[in-house]
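User: Fold this, then the next.

Assistant: Folding the first:
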Amino acid sequence: YIGGNAFNAAGGVQVVELDNIETIQQDAFNNSNVREAIIPSATTISNYGFRNCTSLEIVSIPLVTTLKSACFYGCTSLKEISADSVNSFIIQNFTNCKSLEEVNFPSLTYIGDDLNDSNFKGCSSLKTFIAPKLQRIGGYCFSNCTSLETIELPSLETINNYAFTNCTSLKTVI
């Protein structure tokens, strides 16, 4: 368990590698200089867990099943996330993660709410999104993902308003 604001704005922490943590509470690493987070036993990341960690590049959270709101919002250097067990997002989890290029969530079934999801809004480098079990995309989910070329969503049933607005490079929808 990592409590709320435990490492909020902690400037010196660059690598987090914790084996026995199951829950990361609200704002735990908000605005810190963490560059890499490897937390193999975590199952939940609460609201704003790593928000605005602008140095964060790599995240490995293989057992996390749910991302609450804005967990990685504003992590502008985030390039790689490994989160094979995530099955649902709430809102704004990867908003403005401008370095994220490819995402694969093999267990994801649900993204956001109907009106203002914005989970990947402004991910201007995102080229490929793969989620074979995804059934529902909330509003504005991928808006302004100007590099997005390919989405693979074979189980998709619902796409809400403005989900792909300004995705000017989108070529392939499967």
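Now the next one, as you asked:
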Amino acid sequence: LDAPGARSIAGSSGEAISRFREDVEYIANNLANYPFLLGYAIFAVIAVAIMLEINTRITLTVYLPLLVVVILGNLAMRKIQKYREASRKAAGAVTDFIGEVFGAAQAIKVANAETRVVRRFEQLNDTRRRTADGTSASAAGSRSGRRAEWSGPSGSAAARPTRTSPAPSPPPPC
């Protein structure tokens, strides 16, 4: 267990799945864009040099506001990264919960806990939705104000928000 890859990943298994799924795509997209970024940078340097030769005052009038926008964008990116991290953790919690539910399906049925499981799943999903959308807790919790009853596998009713599309069929009995 002293090898570099022998340590377990910090966090839940759902968070790890979410991290592996999203980060690979993020890195691949960034690597694919580097050649374009280099080309654009070379083009911009040459264009600014030519513009400075023609008229320094107009060039500075154009590029100083642009420089301010770039700096503000970089500052905003830090905040966006914090939101992305929170969204990834919330999605990991949902994925982890789904894995736990599938692993303990029989125990949930024996304990007659379908209602509590569905309620907890809705709470986690609402948290994930709020972190992704930036909406308030009250808006995410009651979208339409109406509640519909869903009969679980054991016949117990659980409150679920109504949807505009048809409700999914209940899961099959274990």
